[in-house]
Every structure is written in structure tokens, then in C-alpha cells.
Design brief:
The protein has 491 residues and is mainly β. It has three helices and 41 strands. The strands form four sheets. It has an 18-stranded parallel sheet that branches. Strands 1, 2, 4, 6, 8, 9, 11, 12 and 15 form a nine-stranded parallel sheet that branches. Strands 20-23-26-28-30-32-35-37-39 form a nine-stranded parallel sheet. It is elongated, with a radius of gyration of 33 Å. The termini are far apart.
Length: 491
């Protein structure tokens, strides 16, 4: 029997090349299998082999750093030098802080960060993304905390879970970063900018400034989350101040805003001139912790803010007021019940219906304008600082200051302007003649004539017929003359 002859055809060059490439790829996959590097119980920098239990080198771009209960106490380990790793898993019950090393950056790959339990994981170092990824954190005693610089590197990041994303560095989280986890901005005076379509339920600003250009109604994703099951945006902390800073175009929201009653400098800014944010939700001052006395909402920015919700005291003993700062206009439209002082340092406070300031007992003009338009507002007292201020009134509008005895001029000049037409009036005190000569001399009036105090104590006038060259009337002399003449006539 003949042995069969097997003919082996030699591989072509192309076939040989494909075979060689396949073999090399298989070897590469086998050799590049990701390794897990367990953080040792020490403070050695992460770029050194001694920082890991196996002490067999340092992790590379395909490897994972695992932080678990090998840590027996809270540790701080510097980054040491720039590193790239696939991701970090964290299940330790003791805190790890990755300390900042100048000019060094930790680049995270597609593994991202998975925090499943325990104490805080703190990035005090610079972090950048090297791939699209997710950071997840379960609820627990420690947060996923960002203290250092952050860059998305052009990749997407989804932050998820019930654990708090605690932001303590002045960073920008742009459109590539979406957050569906509780957000706490705690920057010690810094600013965190949000640009993603975030869906977080909980948004708090205990310290620093949170800035975003979109906010919608409860349930609608925005830079400031969607409110989920908790519509409130909280500003301020027990001994710190937080500011909600809206930088977008004209918009509105029905979200509720809550200010910590121990916070003296917290509030709402609308930063873009010519744009208006309307809040139909209530502005509430919380009752947590021991009150520190009268504290005011801080309202500022070059843009305009309209609050049609209710502003109230936190309790009978915790008096709430408003400090108006910035060049924009704050319009009050709710049936407000707060009883604190309204201080206008800059810009304008206006009302959109009668008695919108509610039970406030004092108005302080310190360089700004209070406008009633065509409505009526009754306040307890009017105080002027040395900077003075303006009362603006429209046709038929009325100011009533119940207690002229409490008028405090402090060297300031009170300007009264607007359309002071038939039916418009200002009342200082309960009877005619209650203004002293010093007080009268501190009033400057323009845009109207026939100024006088009537028998009920109202300062009245009629509009100048023709707004021509004599459209401005010298208030001091004319007011004094008109008042004296009417008194002589026995009015």
C-alpha cells in the first residue's frame, strides 16, 4: 500500500502577513490583560511600587487601582507623578485622599470610578478623562469628593448613584458631564460651573457659588438638576454662604429655594444684564440649627429676578429680610409675609401688585431705587444711608410710611421720581407737618409740580403739563415754599 503524498502549498506573502498579525494580536491581548493593584496600608505616593500590596511595579493605563479594607486607618497618598489607569474601585471603610502633586495629572480610562461603600474618596489632585466613563457612588458616610482640577478631555462622564458628589474645587463641568447623584457645592468661596443636562434630585450650595445657564420647572433636567422628588435648591450652611448664580437667558422655574437660617450672605444672583429669571416657587428660610437672629436673602447681579412665590420668615423669632445688590431689578409679586428690613444697596426693588413686601417693617435706601409703579405699598419706616436713594412712583401709585418719627436721613438725599400724576402720593407719618425742615431739605423732586403736604399727611403733586425745558422742578425750595403756603392758608 502506498503512502499518500500530502502536498503542502506554501503560504502567500499576504497570507503570511495576516497570520503573523493575528498571532501578534493574540499575544498582545494575552499580555495586556488588566491587573488589579491593591492600595497598601501606607501613605506612599501612587506612582511608586511600594504603594501597593504586591510591590510588583506600578499600575498602567490598562490596570485598576483597588482600595479596600487593607486600609486600617485614614490615609493620604500623593499622586507623585502623572499616571494613567483604567479605573479605581473603592470599598474601604477608611478614607483615602489622593494628595495633589504639582503639575501631575491622574488620567482615568473607561473603568472610571466605582465607590461601593464606606468612607470618603477624595481627589485633591488633578483628574482628566482618557475615555468615556461612569463614576458611581452608593450612599454612605463618605462622599465622592473632588478638590482638585478637573478636565473632561473631550470625553463623556456620567456621575450616578445615591452617594453625594461633593465639589470643593473651582471647576467647570460642561455639557459632556451629566450628573444623576446628589450635588453639594462646597468650594470655600470658589465657583463651580455646570453645563450638562443634569437629573439630580438634590442640589445644595452650602459654600461658594454654583453657576449654570439653564433651569426649568420641577422634573425638567437642567444645569441645576430636575428636582426629582425634592424640588428644593438649598443655599448656605451652618457657618458658610452659598450663592445660586443663574447666567442664562430669560427663563422661569417653579423650584423652591431654601436658605439656611444661620447663613448671612446666601442668596440668588442673575448675572446676565437684560435677562430675567422668574421664580414661582417659594423662598423659604430653614429652621435647622440655632438661629443667629435677623438674616437676609442676598439678591444681586446685573440681570433681573422676579419672585412671584412667597417669601416668609422661618419662624416668629427668626426675622427674614432682603438685601438688594447689583444693578438689576428685583420684582416682588408674591403675597409675602416676611417682616425683616429691605435694604436696597444698588439697582431697583419693584412691586408688581399692592403690598408685595407684605409685613416688612423698614425700608433702607442705600444707593438704590424702590419702585411701586401704579400700586400701593405700606411700610413702617424709611431710612436713608449717606448714599441716599430714590423712590419711584407711577400714576396713581402710593407710598405710605407709617412712622415718620423713625425717619433716619443720615446725611443722605432722597430723590422722588417717576410719573407723579393725579392720584399719586407719598405719606410720611400720620398727619400733616410731620416732616422736619431737615428732612424736607433732603428731598429732591423731579418730574412734577404743585407739591404739598395735605391734611392727612400725604405728599401730593400733579404732573408737569409739558415735559419741556422746565420739566425738572427744584425740589428743596419748591417743596418748602408749597408746604409753607398751604399751612398759611390753613389747609
Amino acid at each position: 500500500m502506498k503512502t499518500p503524498v500530502v502536498s503542502v502549498r506554501p503560504l502567500s506573502f499576504a497570507q503570511s502577513s495576516l497570520f503573523l498579525l493575528a498571532a501578534m494580536a493574540a499575544m498582545s491581548v494575552n499580555d495586556s490583560k488588566a491587573a488589579i493593584f491593591i492600595k497598601a496600608d501606607n501613605t506612599t505616593s501612587l506612582n511608586l511600587a511600594a504603594s501597593y500590596t504586591a510591590n510588583s511595579g506600578v499600575p498602567g493605563a490598562l490596570d485598576v487601582i483597588q482600595v479596600d479594607n487593607t486600609l486600617t486607618a485614614s490615609r493620604t497618598a500623593n499622586l507623585g507623578a502623572s499616571m494613567s489607569v483604567q479605573g479605581i474601585t473603592y470599598s474601604a471603610t477608611n478614607q483615602l485622599q489622593i494628595g495633589n502633586t504639582a503639575s501631575a495629572v491622574l488620567t482615568l480610562g473607561s473603568g472610571g470610578v466605582t465607590k461601593t461603600a464606606g468612607a470618603a474618596l477624595i481627589f485633591a489632585n488633578a483628574v482628566t478623562l482618557g475615555a468615556n466613563q461612569t463614576w458611581s457612588s452608593t450612599a454612605g458616610t463618605g462622599n465622592l469628593q473632588m478638590n482638585g482640577a478637573f478636565s473632561d478631555g473631550g470625553f463623556t462622564l456620567a456621575v450616578t448613584g445615591a452617594g453625594t458628589f461633593d465639589l470643593r474645587g473651582s471647576n467647570t463641568f460642561g455639557a459632556n458631564v451629566t450628573i444623576d447623584a446628589p450635588i453639594s457645592v462646597n468650594t470655600t468661596g470658589g465657583t463651580v460651573v455646570f453645563g450638562g443636562s443634569n437629573t439630580t434630585d438634590s442640589f445644595s450650595i452650602p459654600n461658594g457659588r454654583a453657576q449654570g445657564a439653564t433651569i426649568g420647572n420641577f422634573g425638567v433636567a437642567s444645569n441645576f438638576g430636575d428636582g426629582g422628588t425634592n424640588t428644593t435648591i438649598t443655599v448656605g450652611g451652618s457657618a458658610s454662604n452659598g450663592v445660586f448664580d443663574y447666567t442664562g437667558n430669560t427663563g422661569s422655574t417653579n423650584r423652591t429655594f431654601t436658605r439656611d437660617r444661620r447663613s448671612t450672605g446666601s442668596g440668588i444672583d442673575v448675572s446676565t444684564a437684560g435677562q430675567t429669571l422668574t421664580i414661582s416657587g417659594n423662598l423659604v428660610t430653614g429652621t435647622t440649627g440655632t438661629a443667629i437672629g435677623a438674616t437676609n436673602w442676598q439678591m444681586g447681579g446685573a440681570g433681573n429676578l422676579t419672585v412671584s412665590g412667597v417669601i416668609s420668615n422661618s419662624s416668629a423669632s427668626d426675622v427674614v429680610g432682603i438685601d438688594k445688590n447689583g444693578s438689576g431689578t428685583l420684582t416682588l409679586g408674591g403675597n409675602n409675609t416676611f417682616t425683616g428690613t429691605v435694604t436696597i444697596n444698588a439697582g431697583t426693588v419693584a412691586i408688581s401688585a399692592s403690598e408685595r413686601i407684605g409685613n416688612s417693617n423698614a425700608l433702607v435706601l442705600a444707593g438704590g431705587t424702590f419702585s411701586v409703579g401704579t400700586f400701593t405699598e405700606t411700610l413702617g419706616t424709611l431710612d436713608l444711608t449717606a448714599a441716599g436713594g430714590t423712590l419711584s412712583i407711577g400714576s396713581g401709585g402710593k407710598f405710605i410710611f407709617a412712622d415718620s418719627a423713625a425717619l433716619d436721613w443720615n446725611g443722605g438725599l432722597l430723590s422722588i421720581s417717576g410719573t407723579f400724576a393725579s392720584g399719586s402720593s407719598i405719606k410720611f407719618g400720620s398727619a400733616a407737618g410731620t416732616l422736619t425742615g431737615t428732612q424736607l431739605s433732603a428731598i429732591s423732586i423731579s418730574g412734577f409740580n404743585n407739591v404739598a403736604l395735605d391734611s392727612s399727611g400725604f405728599l401730593t403733586a400733579s404732573a408737569i403739563p409739558e415735559p419741556s425745558a422746565y420739566a425738572t422742578l427744584a425740589g428743596v425750595g419748591m417743596l418748602g415754599f408749597a408746604t409753607m403756603r398751604r399751612r398759611r392758608q390753613g389747609v
